[in-house]
Amino acid sequence: MGKSILIGAILGSLIGWVMGFTIFSGIIVGAIVGGIFFSLFTKRTTTQLDEKNKQEEQTIQLREEELDIEKERVQTGEVKIHKEVVEEQKTITVPIRRQEMVIEAGDEEQYRIPLKEEEIEIHKHPVKLNDVSISKQEVTEIQQVKATVKKETADVDIDGTVDVARNNEQQ
């Protein structure tokens, strides 16, 4: 831009001198005209280059699939816990005492002596045998999930002798 203003100032001073203006006013008018000319010229040139590049350049959008993992709780079974009564025969040896009458021969008197013996009575009562704890615990295990995903790549087919500039290829 500086070159355009300088050239415009020089041309403006020459035109101003030829037309009879002062050289200073010619420099100012020339600089302004040179700046305007530079702005218009570069805008037009940039616009033309952008349009030309747009016509020559095309893009292809490449895509790939990604895996989205979701987890869902499902009931896999059920556990029922109940008590069951099991009967079994137990045999216990218990010593029992009893009295026996012993009579010795001798005088003829009668004696009445009560005899006693122990009888076995069976009583049942519950006894705490064991506590069974019931709870759930969370166990984490690692599973590998495999799935096939698709990925688009750009493939260039060249026919004939064509120069192709390749940029860094994306992996």
UniProtKB/TrEMBL annotation:
Residues annotated as domain DUF2382: 60-156
InterPro entries, alphabetized: DUF2382 (IPR019060), Stress_Response_Assoc (IPR052967)
Swiss-Prot/TrEMBL keywords: Membrane, Transmembrane, Transmembrane helix
Transmembrane segments: 6-38
Name of the protein in question: YsnF/AvaK domain-containing protein
Record organism: Alkalihalobacterium chitinilyticum
